[in-house]
Write a structure and sequence with these properties.
Elements lengths: L2 H12 L9 H14 L3 H15 L10 H10 L7 H11 L3 H4 L5 H9 L7 E5 L18 E6 L2 H13 L4 E5 L9
Parallel strand pairs: 1-2, 2-3
Length: about 180
């Protein structure tokens, strides 16, 4: 496998807006593996995109309208217990498949899974999606910290703004869980 082929594969995959904001290192790793396994460049591209769809893109059926979300976030009160902030969190979580499926049970979901491990002072949220927007329903100590990670660069930037806006001691970072688990 030539380095030029791998560079071209990463470039070709990233040229599709569906995959453009996914961590390049992950695309490179999957692409390298597929180039080594497949007989053709075309098949390697197809399989790389299929894997990326399976692990990430299937959770975002439509592009996330981050510009609109940033504008809406700026207009919100800085208190997550405010009904307007909570309504915005619910509406925004509906944009991502993995958080949308929990919306109908969000209150009981967090009460049931977090009740026995109180008090919770820190959360490490792996492959987080929009899960940090569930904070108003989580049973966390007042001094909690929140570390989120996902493979989407734009999502991580958005979540950092969310943490800043609501004065949450939290951060979001790009994380390829197939390589390492944050500590």
């Amino acid at each position: 496998m030539a380095q030029a082929d791998l560079d071209q594969l990463v470039s070709d995959v990233c040229s599709n807006s569906k995959y453009a904001r996914i961590c390049c290192e992950l695309i490179r790793k999957i692409g390298k593996n597929e180039l080594e396994k497949r007989g053709s460049y075309k098949e390697a591209i197809k399989q790389t995109r299929a894997k990326l769809h399976q692990i990430a893109a299937s959770f975002q059926e439509k592009p996330i309208p981050y510009e609109r979300l940033f504008t809406e976030l700026d207009a919100l009160p800085r208190d997550l217990s405010d009904p307007a902030a909570q309504a915005w969190c619910l509406k925004t979580m509906a944009l991502h498949a993995s958080t949308r499926e929990r919306l109908v049970i969000i209150t009981t979901f967090y009460q049931n899974i977090l009740a026995t491990i109180q008090p919770i002072h820190s959360v490490v949220d792996l492959a987080c999606g929009f899960n940090p927007l569930s904070l108003p329903w989580m049973l966390l100590a007042s001094d909690f910290s929140y570390q989120a990670c996902d493979i989407y660069e734009d999502m991580n930037g958005f979540l950092d703004c969310y943490f800043d806006h609501f004065r949450i001691q939290g951060n979001s970072e790009i994380c390829d869980l197939s390589e390492e688990t944050p500590q």
